[in-house]
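Hey team,

Sharing the Porin run so nobody has to redo it. Sequence (329 residues) first:
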Amino acid sequence: MGEFSRVGKWAAPAFQVVALLLMVTWSTAQGDDGLSEGAGDEVGVSWYDGGHDYVTDRLQRAAVWLDDFFGDPRAEKEKQASAYMHVVLDAFYSGVEDQSENGVRFRGGVDLPKLDRRLRLLVTSDADSTVTGRELAGTAKDDVKDTDGAVGLSYLFRDRPGHKFSLGGGLSGGLSPALLLAGRYVHTRHWTTNTASHVTSTVYWKSEDGPGVSTLLDYEWSPDADTLWRTTLFGNYKEEIRGLEWSAQAKWAKRLNSKTAINVRGGFQGQTEPNSVLSEGWLKFLYRRNVLRPWLFYELEPGFSWPESLDYRGEPTFAVRLEIQFRRD
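Structure output:
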């Protein structure tokens, strides 16, 4: 029976990956009928408005390009590809006992036809991280083994400049799946030509753990078209523990050329229940390069971790990742 459970645990995520890849392939094979639209009206735009918009868009593209190059989930929310799939072969080493992991992570989505690109089928190898929004927060270690895959649907009810609201539901786990429901609102505000903030608020419910609510705040500064500074604050209140899980991270990212980028990030995380504690701090340097094909990337990420379990004694970490991307815009 134990062997059967292990097979079931691997079979479910494997089926999700194969199913989504088939849908991505189907979507890619479709023609581009109906994609050509007439040019928007640009009459009456003054030269100074046009210049302001040009500078703003150019600096905003730095954040979009860097997120897209690094495979950050934020990029999918901005670019809205009609079909995508990211598969990551991940090997993570930590000097902290029982934190080294290796395996396969994945996430993907595909727009369902004839619904104005608002209804999307989604799959992920880490249901909890995706539903709560923690996948955007940054962590000290790679979560590969102790995660449950999920498949679900998300419908975008509102999509206006600065405002997005969606509702979704799905199933996670293997032979005895859990039900997931979530509502998410994203508010974006551009403060200057090179600064912006994004607030992501999520209310969710999991049949196994009950309800929860999370908020994530990004504050971004792009001093030039190749550089991004981002500060991220995250809080997740879980009814299961009647407490708050929180984290804070600062990141600097730099495009070196069209095929290479680096980033440096540091942060810490903790919780308020069952004991209020700062559980871990980290500092990481990441080198990422596009090789051989436009859809193939590798990463090297050395770093240090300061866990509460070792009385905050510094321990080295190192991650090697190979990422394959499938996409149709």
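The helical segments are 2-29, 47-69, 73-79, 127-132.

Ping me if you want the raw files.
A.
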